[in-house]
Write a structure and sequence with these properties.
Helix content is 79%, strand content 4%. With 281 residues, it is mainly α. The protein has a two-stranded antiparallel sheet with strand order 1-2. Its main location: membrane.
């Protein structure tokens, strides 16, 4: 009973502000919507909007593929980077609190005026300048790894990570905080026992830290996927179709296809991670 009372405010808000609009958007996706003197006229058309989105609209499939590709590339990089930074920030050193604040600042700044500045010419110029300046270094790094016998697709993936460093850092604040909180809950006796047994720091990470934070890797992977899908070219296309071209039926159909694609990816990731996550009894 107390559990129901606890979630009741959220449940009421979900039904009123999310579930009802969700059903309305499903209805709109199967209809044509026209505004006239009497109000809004809704005419059922079946799956015509879905067919138009997938076969007629020239931008939808491209934006959908680009969004999914970006997620497949960015999510592993963000999760690995967040775990690496969390392990470092958990160490005892001077200025640790300042360092933690610096890496969490993008989360605070990624809204409002600061977020809008990212699309201005000044920020674009800075990004292009930094990309151009590091192009030669990235090229040399690629050649060095290829000469060392590293697989070509791994080299390409790592070099793309260098080009995406701004995006990776700006989207890692919450994940770093979650990993840091999880690492601090690990019993120090485990590390003391491993040290007495002669384990190195590398072995302690893979045998203690990594298994103990594996549930948080699962959580951060799901969070990062949803966060990456929340604001990209696909959402811009859906928004422009609905509120610039005023084609709410097509916009709703695009949103539902996008929603189903996200749901499928989340189910696949959940199945993969659930078999490898370690839960301490």
């Amino acid at each position: 009973m107390w559990g129901v009372i606890y979630v009741l405010p959220w449940l009421v808000g979900f039904i009123l502000f999310f579930f009802i609009p969700l059903l309305a958007s499903l209805r709109y996706s199967m209809s044509t919507i026209q505004a006239n003197a009497e109000g809004i006229a809704i005419q059922f058309t079946g799956v015509a909007n879905y067919i138009q989105a997938l076969t007629v609209n020239t931008s939808f499939n491209r934006a959908l593929i680009e969004s999914i590709t970006d997620v497949l590339v960015n999510v592993p990089l963000i999760v690995i980077f967040s775990l690496f930074l969390a392990v470092i920030l958990n160490q005892k050193f001077r200025g640790r609190a300042v360092a933690r604040s610096i890496f969490f600042l993008p989360v605070i700044l990624a809204s409002g005026v600061i977020m809008s500045l990212e699309s201005t010419s000044l920020i674009d110029a800075v990004n292009q300048n930094s990309t151009g300046g590091s192009a030669l270094g990235t090229f040399e790094l690629e050649n060095l790894m290829l000469d060392a016998g590293v697989s070509e697709w791994i080299v390409t993936y790592l070099s793309s990570a260098v080009d995406r460093i701004y995006q990776i850092v700006s989207q890692s604040g919450v994940q770093i905080l979650i990993f840091l909180a999880g690492i601090q809950t690990i019993s120090p006796q485990l590390y003391e026992a491993s040290k007495m047994e002669g384990a190195t720091g590398y072995e302690a990470f893979w045998k203690i830290t990594f298994p103990m934070v594996s549930p948080l890797i699962f959580v951060n992977a799901i969070y990062t996927i949803i966060d990456s899908f929340a604001n990209n070219a696909m959402t811009e296309l859906i928004r422009d179709t609905g509120f610039v071209k005023f084609d709410f039926g097509l916009s709703s159909a695009m949103a539902w296809v996008y929603f189903l694609a996200i749901a499928i990816i989340l189910v696949i990731v959940s199945i993969i991670f659930s078999k490898r996550v370690f839960y301490q009894d």
